[in-house]
Design goal:
A hairpin with a 5-residue loop joins strand 9 (207-212) and strand 10. The protein has two domains: 2-120 and 257-277, Rossmann fold, CATH 3.40.50.720; 124-248, Dihydrodipicolinate Reductase, domain 2 (2-Layer Sandwich), CATH 3.30.360.10. Helix 4 packs parallel to helix 5. Helices cover 42% and strands 21% of the residues. With 302 residues, it is an alpha/beta fold. It is globular, with a radius of gyration of 19 Å. The chain starts with a strand and ends in a 6-residue tail after the last helix. The protein is built from ten helices and twelve strands.
Length: 302
């Protein structure tokens, strides 16, 4: 499958670009970026060609992989879908419900396959853990804590990300938390506008969230990008009739392996016509829930 890469930042340079160039089922046809000079530099590194016109890249591809801020991603992905390209997207698909819905509708109307790269869902250890928990009945509560030091004094390359500064951990790591809680505990109550949501601000960009699920279970999320490095950590656990189950730690280097599995998933969905569990419709649902969290915080709708 011929892929076009959209984006030239750290995520594109370190994960998407090498992952596509090395994948046996993919051919990296070209790179487009908002800065043509950066696209030319990355294309040279990856042994492909730069494109100054995104639509020209779409015309030369079977699929696109997007490594761009969500509200840049969404309209470009709509154009790619309408050009007949399958979609390998980053999370969140958009930071507005309208943008995420337009993208989901465009992909559906065009009949293209879509996969949203929720990193944990494509990590083998996490995928095996999730499969086991989905087959276990009686979960009563879940907890997901995502304490990140991106803006708390770390030397992360993502500390320069303007969209993360604007939207905070809620929109950056909140999708990861939801991607593991929703498959095990069920959807959040309220179909179009989730109603089972309570939220409060913490220090910095920290957000505390309580969710009510259709299964009757409840869950809590704590999301932050502003803790100091010594306070950083990720933990997910479920409690119920089966006891306590904890998300396994990811092994070093797991992101590149996860991305390769996401490419595999898109290839399979495109070949079979079967939607993937992490498609644009799931991406839309995640955006709806995050928007409901902002509403519960008293923030104006986006």
């Amino acid at each position: 499958m011929r892929f076009g890469l959209l984006g030239t930042g750290p995520w594109a340079r370190n994960t998407h670009g090498p992952g596509l160039a090395e994948h046996p089922g993919a051919e990296l046809a070209g790179v487009w970026g908002r800065r043509p000079e950066a696209a030319a530099e990355l294309a040279e590194e990856l042994g492909t060609r730069p494109y100054e016109d995104a639509d020209a890249l779409f015309a030369d591809c079977d699929a696109v992989a997007v490594a761009l801020p969500p509200d840049v991603q969404a309209p470009l992905a709509v154009r790619a879908a309408r050009a007949g390209c399958h979609l390998l997207l980053d999370k969140p698909t958009a930071t507005t419900v309208a943008g995420a819905r337009e993208l989901a509708d465009a992909a559906g109307a065009a009949g293209v396959a879509s996969v949203v790269f929720f990193t944990l869902r494509f990590t083998p250890e996490t995928a095996a853990w999730l499969a086991a928990q989905k087959g276990t009945e009686g979960w009563l509560t879940g907890r997901a804590d995502w304490y990140s030091p991106i803006f708390g004094g770390s030397d992360s390359p993502y500390a320069f990300s303007e969209w993360r500064k604007e939207h905070g951990a809620l929109w950056d790591v909140g999708p990861h938390a939801l991607s593991v809680l929703l498959p095990t505990l069920g959807d959040v109550t309220g179909e179009d506008a989730p109603e089972g949501v309570v939220a409060a601000h913490g220090p910095g960009d920290t957000t505390h969230v309580l969710l009510r699920h259709v299964s009757g279970a409840s869950s809590s999320l704590t999301l932050s990008h502003t803790v100091p490095p010594q306070a950083a950590g990720v933990a997910v656990e479920l409690r119920g009739a089966a006891g306590v189950s904890t998300l396994p730690e990811r092994p070093p280097g797991g992101v590149k392996r996860a991305f390769s599995r996401a490419v595999d998933a898109l290839l399979e969905s495109a070949a079979t016509g079967e939607p993937h569990a992490c498609d644009v419709r799931f991406g839309l649902r995640v955006t709806e829930i995050l928007a409901a969290v902002e509403s519960a915080l008293g923030m104006p709708p986006r």
